[in-house]
Amino acid sequence: NAGVTQTPKFRVLKTGQSMTLLCAQDMNHEYMYWYRQDPGMGLRLIHYSVGEGTTAKGEVPDGYNVSRLKKQNFLLGLESAAPSQTSVYFCASWDENPGPSYGYTFGSGTRLTVV
Amino acid sequence: GEDVEQSLFLSVREGDSSVINCTYTDSSSTYLYWYKQEPGAGLQLLTYIFSNMDMKQDQRLTVLLNKKDKHLSLRIADTQTGDSAIYFCAMNSGYSTLTFGKGTMLLVSP
Questions:
Q1: Which of A49, A91, B62, B92 could form a disulfide with B75 if both were Cys (CB 3.0 to 4.6 A apart)?
Q2: What sections of A12-70 are H helices per DSSP?
Q3: Within a 13 Å sphere around the CA of A89, how many CA atoms are in the beta-carbon half?
Q4: Is pLDDT at A98 greater than 70 in this prediction?
Q5: Are A92 and A35 in contact (CB under 8 A)?
């Protein structure tokens, strides 16, 4: 199993450009998440999904949109990138089976720089 | 919402024990986790503890939970240079979301 795969791994954007980050999981998990990681800030939840066709806002949703059209994919979009969105973005997935004790499975991250 | 605090940095010598601490505000969390992040990588689940437990041991790892003081700790016995990483505590805030601390960078010197 590949687990959780994020593409791209690195990207440099100019202010105002748009892009989509793709997260794909092959574990048939219901729940998927997008976090951003910034120095000294830990991980902050951007958006999440509790199943195909659903999305919900997390702690820092402004400037981002998400879609979960297929169960295995969770897309994070930046419509007009800003330097404040320079960060490392992590996708994670989880399912009730086998249960909460297994925690989240994380992707390896996308490092985004907005200049 | 949940507030989770960790010390930012810990330095130990190889062979010593490391203790990483975490405090939290919401006592309703059911599961409490420790994750490890190596440079350039995502987070990996190290261990977890149920809220109705006080202690859990898993090989070199010991998790202690003091619910009264809302304090969670991770002890790594016989710390090795390969243990150098950032360690995050996390707990469920609501059924399906986790709140993470800011992470503790552990540096193990030979």
A1: B62
A2: none
A3: 33
A4: no
A5: yes
A18 CA to chain B: closest CA distance, Å?
A: 24
CA–CA separation, B85 vs B44, rounded Å? 11
Beta-strand relationship, B4-6 and B55-58: unpaired
- Nearest CB among B4, B43, B99 relative to A106 is that of B43
CA–CA distance, A9 with A5 (Å, rounded to integer): 10
pLDDT tops 70 at residue B1: no
Distance, in Å, from the CA atom of A91 to the CA atom of A24, rounded to the nearest integer, reads 9
Using an 8 Å Cβ cutoff, are B65 and B22 in contact? no
The owner of tokens 């979960």 is A68
Q: How many CB atoms lie within 10 A of CB B56?
A: 15
How close is the nearest chain B Cα to the Cα of A5, in Å?
11
Are B99 and B93 within 8 A, CB to CB?
Answer: yes
